[in-house]
């Protein structure tokens, strides 16, 4: 492997499967017994309470409440040349089988395995590591206790209509969100952001999704929101994961974790690494739907000023956005922004040296004219999923008798800055009854 700077891993997550390398948490943290303490800590794993791996300790003694004594796995990033690859074997077992084709090794199910990661600058701040509250609404972390972050839902006091209601709505939103930020705890794990989940609670559920016999309940704002899906009809919260985005891929909403670009942390959206499937005929559709190099629109209500802080609402179509008084804006994903490059010529010169990423002089959103040197990740790798039989949760013949695995090429960050990253593996299946 070839690399330049160390890339730091934070918490590795799984969803309805068991991730063994890197160590998948299954929502475990530092438990001293076989059973995890909080199945809703960061995400919906839908797994046995005895699965998963603890966060590592950097010393002989347990880290306990000292985040500086936790050990995060470290990996070297790839280099800019095509041959300068740093690789990592991603290995897992899945519960209900996967892979195969109708002709050679038929299954009665269809499956997709999605591998994604999110990174941010590894800000060197010992106070943050020591559980200071600085940047607690941004900083990716495992946390030191197993509690779920606190959150207060939106309410209709933020969406009243009629004369002179606008100021009241904004004040109600501001008060609630200020309280939500104040109630975040540095000692608790944090992956998806508070603002990302709040968008989810405002956003209207996609009415075209299959819900079987499940009846989705209305949320606090009086309509079915994106926290309610076939698998989560009551809108239960797990960390700040958005259930609709978790359950469906590719997603039709930009997975940006902040309302505006953060120069200090540069937290990326979810970056698509691999889409492993039993139906590779959909690869063209998957690549076009991936946020990696394709713009995805959302409804923007305002610019996020002090007086008008909320930029998001319920609309998921352009027509509904116009009716809501918003603007339909296309957003672009980024692996990082090269802030030291300030001209198009310099950006193009940098792009010529990078054979791995897509580097462009561009705006991050369609309603802005200012341009930056934007690094976008490679296209998602869409390929056949390893074959496993149903109700086995074991090894795969496609992996030479090992557990299911994917040979991942780690990203290249042209800034050479160290990164904190979180990785997740999603496992979705449907039976041939709905093929």
The pLDDT mean sits at: 89
User: Could you name the ranges where pLDDT drops below 50 across 5 or more consecutive residues?
Assistant: 1-14
What is the share of helical residues? 10-25%
Query: What is the N-to-C order of secondary-structure elements (H for helix, E for strand)?
Result: EEEEEEEHHHHEHEHEEHEEEEE
Task: State which percent range the strand residues make up.
Answer: 15-25%
What structural category characterises the helix and strand content? alpha+beta
Strand order of the largest sheet: 5-1-16-7-8-14
> How many H/I helical runs?
7
End-to-end Cα distance: 41 Å
Described by the principal axes of the CA atoms, the overall outline is globular
Number of strands: 16
Rg computed from alpha carbons, rounded to a whole number of angstroms: 22 Å
Mind describing the biggest β-sheet?
A: 6 strands, mixed
Write the layout of secondary structure elements.
Layout: E1 6-15, E2 17-21, E3 56-57, E4 70-71, E5 74-76, E6 87-94, E7 109-121, H1 126-129, H2 166-183, H3 194-202, H4 243-247, E8 271-277, H5 283-289, E9 296-300, H6 318-323, E10 327-331, E11 336-337, H7 344-353, E12 358-362, E13 372-376, E14 381-384, E15 404-409, E16 419-431
Parallel strand pairs: 1-16, 8-14
Antiparallel strand pairs: 1-5, 2-6, 3-4, 6-15, 7-8, 7-16, 9-10, 11-13, 12-13
């Amino acid at each position: 492997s070839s690399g330049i700077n160390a890339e730091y891993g934070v918490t590795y997550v799984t969803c309805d499967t068991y991730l063994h390398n890197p160590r998948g948490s299954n929502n475990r943290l530092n438990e001293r017994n076989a059973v995890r303490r909080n199945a809703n800590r960061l995400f919906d794993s839908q797994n046995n309470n005895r699965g998963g791996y603890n966060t590592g300790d950097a010393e002989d003694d347990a880290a306990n409440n000292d985040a500086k004594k936790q050990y995060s796995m470290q990996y070297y990033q790839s280099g800019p040349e095509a041959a300068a690859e740093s690789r990592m074997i991603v290995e897992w077992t899945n519960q209900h089988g996967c892979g195969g084709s109708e002709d050679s090794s038929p299954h009665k199910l269809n499956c997709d395995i999605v591998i994604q990661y999110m990174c941010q600058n590894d800000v060197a701040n010992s106070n943050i590591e020591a559980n200071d509250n600085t940047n607690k609404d941004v900083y990716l972390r495992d946390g030191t206790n197993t509690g779920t972050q606190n959150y207060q839902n939106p309410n209709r006091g933020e969406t009243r209509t009629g004369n002179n209601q606008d100021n009241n709505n904004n004040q109600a939103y501001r008060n609630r969100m200020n309280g939500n930020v104040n109630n975040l705890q540095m000692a608790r794990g944090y992956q998806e952001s508070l603002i990302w989940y709040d968008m989810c609670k405002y956003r209207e559920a996609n009415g075209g999704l299959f819900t079987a016999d499940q009846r989705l309940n209305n949320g606090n704002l009086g309509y079915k929101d994106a926290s309610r899906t076939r698998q989560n009809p009551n809108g239960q919260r797990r960390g700040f994961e958005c259930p609709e985005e978790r359950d469906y891929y590719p997603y039709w909403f930009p997975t940006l974790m902040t309302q505006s670009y953060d120069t200090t942390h540069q937290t990326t959206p979810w970056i698509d690494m691999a889409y492993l499937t039993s139906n590779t005929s959909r690869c063209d559709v998957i690549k076009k739907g991936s946020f990696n190099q394709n713009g995805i629109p959302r409804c923007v209500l305002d610019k996020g000023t002090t007086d008008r802080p909320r930029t998001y609402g319920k609309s998921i179509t352009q027509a509904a956005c116009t009716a809501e008084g918003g603007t339909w804006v296309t957003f672009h994903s980024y692996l990082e922004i090269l802030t030291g490059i300030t001209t198009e010529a310099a950006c193009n010169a940098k792009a010529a040296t990078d054979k791995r990423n897509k580097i462009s002089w561009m705006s991050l959103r369609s309603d802005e004219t200012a341009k930056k040197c934007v690094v976008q990740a490679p296209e998602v790798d869409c390929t056949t999923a390893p074959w496993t039989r149903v109700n086995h949760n074991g090894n795969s013949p496609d992996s030479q008798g090992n557990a299911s695995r994917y040979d991942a090429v780690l990203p290249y960050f042209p800034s050479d800055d160290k990164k904190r990253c979180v990785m997740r593996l999603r496992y979705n299946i449907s039976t041939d009854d709905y093929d």
